[in-house]
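Could you help me review a protein record that somebody else here produced? This is what I was given.
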Amino acid sequence: MYPPHQHILFVEDNEDHREVVTFFLTRSGYCVTNAGTSVEALGLAQSEHFGLYLLGDWFPHGKESRLCEQLHRFDPRHPILFYSAAATVSTAQAEADAQRMVATREAAPPNEP
């Protein structure tokens, strides 16, 4: 079993992207658990321990910012990163969502272990 800091929950709806990213992370020594939907990700986050949440930037069954908020509420101690395979400039809404999430994270009181 891997230590929690080496266990990554990777949430991505595109199966090809999941396979490629998982291959490289596993090859680098990390344990990776995959989820294809927000619902699946929340279930895994509640049943396993992760040191990092890596989220794709587009989900068909829920907004990524909503999933980020839910994961942070459930596990505020571990980082959440967004992954994107898109070669486009972020939209104003995505930028506003990201700024709001950062502001929320900075305003939250630190959790004591």
